[in-house]
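Handout, section B. The chain below has 357 residues.
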Amino acid sequence: MFRFRDKSTANKILEKIKDLNIKAKFMNVCGTHQDTIVRYSLDTLLEPYGIELVAGPGCPICVTTSREYMEAMVLAARGKIITTYGDAARVRIRGRSLLTLRGDGADIRIVYSIDDAVEIAKMNPNRDVVFLAVGFETTAPSTAYTILSDPPRNFYILNCHRRIPPAIEALLSLGEVKIDGFIDPGHVSTIIGLEPYERIVSRFPIPHVISGFEPLDVLVSVYMLARQVKRGEAKVENEYSRAVRREGNPRALKLIEEVFEYTDLEWRGLSRVENSGMRLKRKYEDRDARLVFQDELKLLEEYSEPKGCRCSEVLRGLAKPRECPLFSITCTPLNPIGPCMVSVEGACYIEYKHRRV
């Protein structure tokens, strides 16, 4: 359904896209963009104009691996206070999650920010408090700032931070799906700026547009991508110039550089991605839960993903939520089989929420 406050502007943009007369597939790598696209049916709206929109690995809860969630669950079972965001606490492994462990007596605390987790550590000086740090470049500066602020000695990070540009390169390297352009994430781009995408374009010459989050932002970004395709161009354009600067946020980038070093890391759906992870530097290893509690984490068991779940393929743009045989049948927000149905930024959750019927 066409649900815009400013329909005339939207129609003008659509006419411009129509006049270009192209066929193209564009991928977004941001859960908030996916929510806008599905909420306002932009994908359906653009299909008659030759544009297909697909979701990529833009949901941090979704791309975090089962092993990482299992690490948090093991530490919870060993008596640590585990603090994390609500979505991360709901991801199920073998039918169990951090929330179900809380029902069994584990001390799991849902927080709105890492600051809340630090306060919990201060209030429980005789307990180990672990913050499950999930997120991309957007949330990594907050973790870095906390580490530099000398939190209580009983406070640790179970670090799951990831970098978006290497994931985009990994997708393109796989060559499983032909992508004609990327709608780049606005929030991440406020931190990293334009240069990381320009490095991608130098290796994989396809269009990129950094987009804002309003429906008209996304439509304009699609038009900008389509115009590049029509002209045979491959460059990085910034539709979200009201928030994203070319240099990004130097202070935030400096925090990341001070605390983290880049490392290869597993992603759900993408396997091991070179230089996509952020590992605490050696001088901060006393805050690294994986190192401090490595003996306890030896209790981790092998795990295989649920049968039939296509979350990994959804994250690579190979499948859409409704193509999963579990979607809305056995897998729902109240009974999520895979993380794509757990997170509010997950493609399956968004599809179910806005277009269940």
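Note. The mean pLDDT is 95. Compare this with the example in section A.
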